Amino acid sequence: DADVTQTPRNRITKTGKRIMLECSQTKGHDRMYWYRQDPGLGLRLIYYSFDVKDINKGEISDGYSVSRQAQAKFSLSLESAIPNQTALYFCATSDSLYNEQFFGPGTRLTVL
Amino acid sequence: GENVEQHPSTLSVQEGDSAVIKCTYSDSASNYFPWYKQELGKGPQLIIDIRSNVGEKKDQRIAVTLNKTAKHFSLHITETQPEDSAVYFCAAAETSYDKVIFGPGTSLSVIP
Q1: Chain A, 20-39: which have a CB under 8 Å from a chain B CB?
Q2: How far apart are CA B12 and CA A67, in angstroms?
Q3: Quick one: DSSP state of residue B13?
Q4: What is the pLDDT of residue B55?
């Protein structure tokens, strides 16, 4: 089984809808991250969490919110989706001793 | 905050030739520089990293060099093979325990 899983893998939604992307990990890591990937812009950090009670904004947090329900679960929400949030979204984890990040398979989100 | 630039954005090489990807960073406090490889349809995966107390690091056909004075670091792949075709991301962080900032990526194609 994959160490970092993301659900759903693909989602098409309409402008104004609320969307939640979920991430679960079995690696036992305390740190979790949400990135979005756009062509030519690389990976941009949306939010990150270094433990269950710690939530931090990244480079592009506007329009997004997160919830760290447990050490193993980190969800990303779009309260009111807009078309420029169409992108590939990745969840990643790392431990507190070494920052190698382990990425999930990604969620492709399309906002019409 | 940290800003990472990466060149070229696309690179095509003949199988067996070498490939070089170059990155620059802006924050002189950064001292951890990982490289990630993203294969089609997958999340990025760490392939090599370097810290500021080291000028060069090699792992089989892959090498990274770091020039802290000029704030440059590079990835060198020798004897390229078709399976090296992927998107490569450089990144920088203040420490190996900190969040990383990614460059925009380089799409490498190795032509058989």
Answers
A1: 33, 35
A2: 41
A3: E
A4: 87
